[in-house]
From TrEMBL:
InterPro entries recorded: Cro/C1-type_HTH, DUF5753, Lambda_DNA-bd_dom_sf
Identification of the protein by name: Helix-turn-helix transcriptional regulator
Coiled coil residues, start to end: none
SMART domains membership: HTH_XRE (SM00530)
Pfam families, per database record: DUF5753, HTH_31
CDD domains listed in its UniProt record: HTH_XRE
Domain of life: Bacteria
UniProt source species: Streptomyces ramulosus
UniProt-listed SUPFAM superfamilies: lambda repressor-like DNA-binding domains (SSF47413)
Location of the HTH cro/C1-type domain: 21-74
Amino acid sequence: MVNRKELDPERSPAARFGQLLRALRDEHGWTQDELAERMGCSGTHISAVETGRRPPTPHFAVSADRALGAGDRLQRQARAVRYTALIEGFPEYVTHEARAAEIRLYEVGVIPGLLQTPEYAAALEADAVRREAITPEQADERVDLVAQRQAALMRSPSPLILAVLDEGCVRRPMGAPAVMAAQFARLLEFAELPNSVLQIAPFSMGARRPFSLPVTLLTMPDRSLMSYAESTHRGHLERESSFVLPILTAYHQLQAEALSQAESVAMIEQLRKGSP
């Protein structure tokens, strides 16, 4: 096609959205103007979004999904464009987390987002601002997303959440003592829920610890599995069962070696009272 601009989906989330939009439009054999007519906008607008010159609004993504019969694919990709403060791959993970029937977490160093109090989340991001890793606006975005993720799990039936925390998560202070006291109380409340299991992986596990980095496993309503893990710059969502099942096996081994929930609660109670 004459003057058809090549798209580089690796350039940005907006570029990936544009590539997906073009691919879906091509599947229908429509021109930009023909899609625009069905969406109630202009062909120039479609062109600008496809080439990444204009970010998609939530309304645009919904309208495009409807016109192209794409379910919510474009809406999910649009969320990745919106959350610019997040590591690449994480916004896509969040959309699956919100629908999961079971969530298995292993975290190192910090309390996982699903269990954070607002004050703990704010203290964590304030430290990132201090280090100039993110802007104050991006910190606010991250804290808001923590609340949104937690709210998405307040549904019926409730998802089963199994959390194994490295001992460093509860021993690392974050913010003022009052922040940690409230966070400990939040963990104890979580442990009492009928749809939760909380365990601490103690330092004494040593080499028996099967993971050195955080990992998350999701069981979806259709019982399919996926795992999510992060490197320094990007997150990776894995759906291939031959890769996910060994991670699930390792997670079961982690749970067997970690402290029981009763022992874990006792450790958190001691820390809340200020005893070692």
